Amino acid sequence: MFPESIQNLIKQLSKLPDIGPRAATRLVFYLINQNQKDLDDLSLSIKDLKTKINLCNNCYNITTNEKQLCSICSDQKRNKDTICIVETILNIPPIEKTKQFNGLYHVLGGLISPIDDIGPKKLKIDELIKKTKSFKIKEIIFALSPTTEGDTTVLYIERIITRLRSDRASAGKVKISRLARGLSTGSDLEYIDENTLTSAFRGRR
User: Fold this and answer.
1) Which of 17, 144, 172, 202 has a CA between 20 and 30 Å from the CA of residue 41?
2) Could you tell me the residue range of the domain that residue 45 belongs to?
3) What pTM did the predictor assign?
């Protein structure tokens, strides 16, 4: 129906989240009507994602400097003894907007979900546990979406940390808290409004 080059691009765009074949087709024909410079700029920006963007060695947030820390981890004004655990990088900006948290983050890269074949080993959980062993962490805040997967992930990590508490006296000093349950069950943290998220942080326990 369409030339091979168009079909190939439709196929690639359809792989993006929430983009089906119909939406991908509309995007392709939108791009066809753009000038060459805009297309070149878009192509270069996509290539830069792999050549100039990296993950922070400490928290797995994004950073533009290879093998270096992100702007949050390298900020000397942040509390190094408090860690906020989030599902994805996209959860960090909404929390930062609330100005209720001044510690460091740890990005898991997803949530435990057996139905999606996502187990603990596919997430950054081992790295988190190593961090709690190596550094003097005073508080761990779970800022995960209030879903079945989020609760499962919290319980899994809590069990490991509780085990560490019984093995090491120093681990007993770690406070574990969750965001207040004002968040609607099943909601995605990324889309929760700032006021609700602020209240959830203030009421954490």
Assistant:
1) 17
2) 4-52
3) 0.83
